[in-house]
Amino acid sequence: MSAFTSKFADELIANAAYIGTPGKGILAADESTGTIGKRLASINVENVETNRRNLRELLFTAPGALPCLSGVILFEETLYQKSSDGKLFVDILKEGGVLPGIKVDKGTVELAGTNGETTTQGLDGLGDRCKKYYEAGARFAKWRAVLKIGENEPSELSIHENAYGLARYAVICQENGLVPIVEPEILVDGSHDIQKCAAVTERVLAACYKALSDHHVLLEGTLLKPNMVTPGSDSPKVSPEVIAEHTVRALQRTVPAAVPAIVFLSGGQSEEEATKNLNAMNQLKTKKPWSLSFSFGRALQQSTLKTWAGKEENVKAAQEALYVRCKANSEATLGTYKGDAKLGDGAAESLHVKDYKY
Amino acid sequence: MSAFVGKYADELIKTAKYIATPGKGILAADESTGTIGKRFASINVENIESNRQALRELLFTSPGTFPCLSGVILFEETLYQKTSDGKPFVDLLMESGVIPGIKVDKGVVDLAGTNGETTTQGLDSLGTRCQEYYKAGARFAKWRAVLKIGATEPSELSIQDNAKGLARYAIICQENGLVPIVEPEILTDGSHDIKQCAAVTETVLAAVYKALNEHHVLLEGTLLKPNMVTPGSDSPKVTPEVIADYTVTALRRTVPPAVPGIVFLSGGQSEEEATLNLNAMNKLDVLKPWTLTFSFGRALQQSTLKAWAGKTENVAKAQATFLTRCKANSDATLGKYTGGASGDSAASESLYVKGYKY
């Protein structure tokens, strides 16, 4: 057979399709302990387990937020955490119609002989880990591959290595009941223009789908999490319509219709930028056989974090801030966002960090 | 850039889109002199230029057929031929809204060390030839790669070589103003089941689109001419609905939405089979981001040839027969064909020839 059809095939297809439900998207709350430490540091909150738990409880119990979401990506620690009521987070999410997902990669390591390019670790024992995560309630997974644009980058080695890593991860997930989100992030760092980003994105995505085909991945049971096609961080900005046009064209040229949904990463975009760009894509009148939605981390949580600042008395306001961004992005998946979301503190703030490392 | 956007880009996109117009399709009338000789032999007609001219004139002046056709593929000799009134065929076609195309490959040769697998020739001076064909009025081209299914076939070598040949041909065409029809035909010969055909088709198409990406081919200015996914010729037949399901699934998994149209080859299918299968695909209730139409040779001409039998007094009858098949296939592209277009027994006659060589 071409696609591997495991006992989980029907479930994978149903879950992938559900995640792509128009009006819904993914909250990426899978920051590793180290990464969440940086976020907490920025609001002067100590990086201890209770605070990490408090933040996630704030997010998952925010009134009105869950109906805008089809999935939440969790870090391993969070998969086993409970609310202050003693209820497992995964159960809160499931009851709210939200599928729990799990980050399964183990970060990047450098590719020797390249100019700072990386590959992603995490394949060892991945099958067993996926089984455990499935038992704990996870139904999808995420693995972040990272590429960069430079004079000689991305190299053929980097493209090939990352594409094949994603493919191995994807089929192992499917063998164990988890829908793999395939994430080949091309960093925004650089002074290149949008055409260059488009060319690289098309090349990388073509390599990914060739690798997925070679590894017998069932595309109907996967999701794609790509970067939007934008100018480099050191280049002049362009309008959401231009971003939408280049992004959707790149996807039309590379992503087979069998993939049910594309859930964009936000990179270093501000909350408002990310929402406007997604909205513009969904307004574009052109062939889009996959739904276009979000899988935002920083672009959903920035204002919320600032509003919370680690204080109990701010929880309600912080939850409202989260709801505002969730609603805005939910509308953006339908192309109906009017740009009128009550802008929270920091909603327009660029979240770009040069050479960002998770 | 990823896709090469030369001076002909807009024209290529427009032409490809036009050829893919729902309700229309392609008449493949590009039989080489040798191949048309075999057809003539079957109806006891001498293989001389005037007979070849007479057959094509019969086809190209059939009343009522032009609205069903968006293109006709010609052999080089025919590109320069005229009607008995002295009008060049290409002018007649263009005036009637039918775009002339040209077969540019030079047949297959064996790949040494394989079990009878082949690659296709024709790249030498292809650019120059395309320029001449463009001047003569051609606006699209066709190149047939051939693969087979066997215990160890298609081999990785065969897939890679044929995919690369198609990609080089495609970009050279686009540099010179011709829309390339990309044809990776997987022969029906064999006792394999439909699942095996599906797996091979998906693998081959994935390799083809990877190669097209590597060679910077502008997908919006191409067409795909694949085999339908069917059981092998020595295996039990299945219904048109089953063929439609497997075929469309294979295409959804491999053909990027940027491709405007898929124009199926008929292989050894009878006229009626080919039409019913195409119809079933267009009735399938699943998202198809490209139009599905025909590029039939034998499956459009078989009954017509028999009705003509080389005799002038049969021309009107033969043309009426041709119109019947054109109309049937036009309806099939809209999912409107109700079957039994002609009571002609020839319409149901299998056109399968083992180890078919053009």
From TrEMBL, chain A:
Domain of life: Eukaryota
Gene name, Swiss-Prot/TrEMBL: LOC104711852
Protein name listed in UniProt: Fructose-bisphosphate aldolase
Cited InterPro entries: Aldolase_I_AS, Aldolase_TIM, FBA_I
EC number: 4.1.2.13
Alphabetized UniProt keyword annotations: Glycolysis, Lyase, Schiff base
Entries under Pfam families matching the protein: Glycolytic (PF00274)
PANTHER family in alphabetical order: FRUCTOSE-BISPHOSPHATE ALDOLASE
Catalytic reaction list: beta-D-fructose 1,6-bisphosphate = D-glyceraldehyde 3-phosphate + dihydroxyacetone phosphate
NCBIfam families with a match to the protein in the record: FrucBisAld_I
Pathway: Carbohydrate degradation; glycolysis; D-glyceraldehyde 3-phosphate and glycerone phosphate from D-glucose: step 4/4
Membership in a protein family: Belongs to the class I fructose-bisphosphate aldolase family.
UniProtKB/TrEMBL annotation, chain B:
Record key words, sorted: Glycolysis, Lyase, Schiff base
InterPro entries: Aldolase_I_AS, Aldolase_TIM, FBA_I
Record's catalysed reaction(s): beta-D-fructose 1,6-bisphosphate = D-glyceraldehyde 3-phosphate + dihydroxyacetone phosphate
Pfam family, one: Glycolytic
EC numbers, comma separated: 4.1.2.13
Pathway: Carbohydrate degradation; glycolysis; D-glyceraldehyde 3-phosphate and glycerone phosphate from D-glucose: step 4/4
Superkingdom of this protein's organism: Eukaryota
NCBIfam families recorded: FrucBisAld_I
UniProt record similarity statement: Belongs to the class I fructose-bisphosphate aldolase family.
Record's protein name: Fructose-bisphosphate aldolase
Source organism of the structure: Camelina sativa (False flax)
